[in-house]
Amino acid sequence: MDSKTVDITYDVVTGKETPLIGAEENRQTVERFLIEQKGFAKQDIEVDAPLELLIAGEVYRSKIDLIVRVNGRRLMAIKCAAGSLGSREREILAASRLIDTYQIPFSMVSDGKTAIVLDTVSGQSIGEGLDAVFSKQDASEKLKTLEFLPFPEKRRDREKIIFRSYDSMNVNVLSAA
User: Fold this and answer.
1) At what angle do helices 89-98 and 153-167 cross, to 10 degrees?
2) What is the Cα–Cα distance from 78 to 132, expressed in whole angstroms?
3) What CATH code is assigned to 8-167?
4) What residues pair up with 127 in beta bridges, in sequence order?
5) Which terminus of the chain faces fewer neighbouring Cβ atoms within 10 Å, N or C?
């Protein structure tokens, strides 16, 4: 970091100090929205979920902004963006497909004012706007009929490269030490 001062906020979910750079303000808005409007508890939300990928023999480390859990299962991965939401859809889909032994069923991109919710397996948009975001109650109902499918092994290497390509373009973020 250089001598510029960086504004600090406290993360809504974790309570930890966090610098207000990049899309952080948007993430705080999304966190408040999930808790206050959609009924999720702080413990239902993972912040900066680590994602480690082995690509061509080298480890690539990143984080997923938010992951929402329902009844202990990862249900939705969220990318908080400061710019165009459409340009971040492919990144969050790849992350949702790679972070666990199963594809996190839903992916979302949000700037805190609007959102795009995607079906991870098909990659198709299933709703736009904050009203498209599931409440905890709706998510619990969806959980009853969902299949948690693994991502096809033969497509994993390609998906890792896609994720890294998009993720490496993120700017205004502090690198993990």
Assistant:
1) 140
2) 13
3) 3.90.1570.30
4) 117
5) C
What tokens were used for 80? 């908080």
Contact 53, 98 (CB under 8 A): yes
Cβ–Cβ < 8 Å for 60, 52: yes
Confidence check: pLDDT of 2 > 60: no
The rounded radius of gyration (Å) of the Cα atoms in the chain is 16
Between the CA of residue 13 and those of 44, 49, 57, 93, 117, what are the distances in Å? 9, 13, 35, 23, 21
Q: What is the pLDDT of residues 86-123, one digit of tens each?
A: 778 999 999 999 999 999 999 999 999 999 999 999 99
User: Sorting pLDDT into bands at 50, 70 and 90, what band is 171?
Assistant: low
Burial class (CB in 10 A: 0-12, 13-18, 19+), 122: exposed
